[in-house]
Design a protein that fits this description.
Blueprint: E1 2-3, H1 36-43, H2 47-57, H3 70-85, E2 89-90, E3 98-108, E4 114-117, E5 120-124, E6 129-130, E7 135-148, E8 164-169, H4 178-181, E9 187-192, E10 200-203, E11 214-218, H5 219-228, E12 245-273, E13 284-290, E14 295-297, E15 300-302, H6 305-324, E16 332-338, H7 346-353, E17 362-369, E18 388-392, H8 399-409, E19 415-417, H9 429-433, E20 439-443, H10 462-482, H11 490-495
Parallel strand pairs: 1-12, 7-8, 8-9, 9-11, 13-16, 13-17, 17-20, 18-19
Antiparallel strand pairs: 2-12, 3-10, 3-12, 4-5, 4-12, 6-11, 7-12, 12-16, 14-15, 18-20
Helix pairs in contact: 1-6, 1-10, 2-6, 2-10, 6-10, 8-10
Length: 498
């Protein structure tokens, strides 16, 4: 198993420490005065600090912070140094800042992989994505294009023998699919939505690779291939097939495909700020955000400024506020920057299953994800969401925590929205909620930049990032004073959904 080195970034990041002057105007209209005992830390959180930190996290040095990629390892090391500067202690394994997770990484070899028709290059390695295969394929094949429903079409045994099958399906294609088992294609390319095609797969599962080479293409690239084979340039569609359709081309393609596989370790970053009350110090408030994004995919960098550079920025500002404030939290603070949220909450799931501190001592878990942009859709312009934030799941386990969050918000005055319960299981708080830990989830909402290379610093609302930090700083400090929250009864839970 290879452990990726925790490399030092190539840039020098200068952070000017110190307590900034109060900036009451940064809070939203109608906010009340912050209690004196929390004010010093609260005032240390600034929009300028939000911009400085996020500029580093979304920089080319970290290359989108993809789990299993070098950019994430650089970001993890940088993040741990920021925690050390903010008075936190390493809380990972063997006195380190890291809880290491084992992963399997499967990666398209972009230099080797290509597809030509005659002398014309049609697709390069950057166009292909990973399916369940690793190894090398090199051959010249005729092509069959297929769009199939869940009910597979009738075809003869060996119908695709010696051929490349390029197929879009209404359900997932596996090596056991009748198209492969009965049709016996020489190689398969699965067509999927463009946004779901990745040149790298990171998983904690050890899969038995398919004996038949399986690669992946987005709809756009797949139609480029059909056009090159003198088939309609819009044969494949974004929507699922509604009828079975097979088309055979007389063209031969020259396909070279190489998929590499290796085992690596990737860290969660874990920091600890000891509580001021020695008798309560083992109890702790947890605050977290996922540090990873999509990294480099098919030759493009996905910077992830909002997702989730914004949340990672916010929890670093909270760390600074805790250390700056003269009054320290009574109970300890566990701060985590998770890996592999984009791969299925794997970092937080791993911690919840392998906690470094007993979960029964965790008072609550505060999660921040995608709070850097104003929510935007065709029906809702971003300008309508300057001061809104989604408060997700805060009533599901403890109404007491919800009420405490509302009390903290009096000093920030976000307009809370409660219409995004559909994302409740889609971020890292869910891993702790399943263990019975009360949670809150601050979420800014979706925008056209979600999971796109355009998620850069352009259009980021630094005031919103700072105010999320201010809100969860107050919530954290108040929770550290409060201690364990009462859990809802079944009746409470039913009546209190947002």
């Amino acid at each position: 198993m290879r452990i990726l080195p925790l490399l030092r970034p190539t840039f020098l990041f200068l952070f000017v420490a110190g307590i900034c002057c109060p900036d009451v105007s940064a809070q939203y209209d109608g906010a009340t005065e912050v209690p004196q005992r929390f004010r010093e830390g609260f005032q240390s959180i600034t929009e300028k600090d939000s911009e400085s930190l996020l500029s580093v996290l979304a920089s080319s040095d970290f290359a989108g912070r993809g789990t299993g990629q070098e950019g994430f390892m650089k970001a993890a090391q940088w993040f741990s140094r920021q925690l050390a500067d903010r008075g936190f202690q390493p809380a990972g394994e063997d006195g380190s800042w890291f809880q290491m997770l084992p992963f399997n990484v499967t990666q398209i070899d972009g230099e080797f992989t290509k597809l030509n028709i005659g002398e014309t290059s049609v697709l390069s390695g950057d166009d292909f994505g990973v399916e369940n295969y690793f190894g090398t394929f090199d051959g010249k094949l005729p092509v069959t294009f297929a769009r199939v429903t869940k009910k597979r079409p009738e075809f003869e045994e060996g119908a695709f023998a010696g051929r490349l099958l390029v197929v879009q399906s209404a359900n997932r294609i596996s090596a056991n699919d009748v198209l492969i088992v009965k049709g016996r294609p020489e190689c398969v390319i699965v067509v999927d939505r463009d946004s779901r095609v990745r040149s790298q797969s990171v998983s904690q599962l050890t899969k038995t690779p398919s004996a038949v080479p399986l690669a992946k293409l987005g709809v756009t690239m797949a139609n480029k291939l059909t056009a090159g084979c003198e088939i309609s340039g819009d044969f494949f569609e974004e929507k699922n097939p509604e009828k079975n359709q097979l088309m055979t081309s007389s063209s031969e393609v020259d396909l070279q495909l190489r998929v590499d596989h290796e085992s690596i370790d990737v860290p969660n970053v874990v920091g600890w700020y000891p509580g001021s009350d020695e008798s309560l110090r083992e109890e702790h408030v947890c605050i977290g955000a996922h540090l990873d994004h999509l990294g480099i995919q098919r030759g493009s960098v996905y910077p992830g400024a909002d997702d989730n550079g914004s949340g990672s920025t916010s929890i670093l500002q909270i760390a600074r506020a805790i250390d700056t404030n003269a009054l320290k939290p009574k109970r300890s603070v566990l701060l985590m920057a998770f890996c592999a949220e984009e791969r299925g909450l794997l970092g937080s799931k791993y911690y919840a299953a392998n906690p470094l501190r007993p979960l029964q001592d965790m008072i609550c878990m505060l999660n921040i994800d995608m709070i850097g942009r104003n929510e935007e859709s065709d029906k809702e312009p971003a300008s309508e969401n300057e001061n809104t934030i989604h408060l997700v799941g805060s009533k599901k386990i403890s109404n007491q925590l919800h009420e405490l969050t509302l009390a903290a918000n009096q000093h920030v005055n976000f307009v809370f929205e409660y219409d995004q319960e559909g994302v409740y299981n889609r971020s890292d708080h869910a891993s702790f909620a399943k263990k019975g830990v009360p949670i809150t989830f601050l979420f800014g909402g979706f925008t056209p930049h979600y999971h796109k290379p355009t998620d850069t610093l352009d259009g980021i609302n630094f005031t919103k990032i700072a105010n999320c930090a201010r809100l969860d700083y107050l919530t954290l400090m108040m929770a550290a004073e409060h201690g364990h929250f009462e859990k809802n009864t079944d009746e409470d839970t039913t009546d209190s959904q947002q």
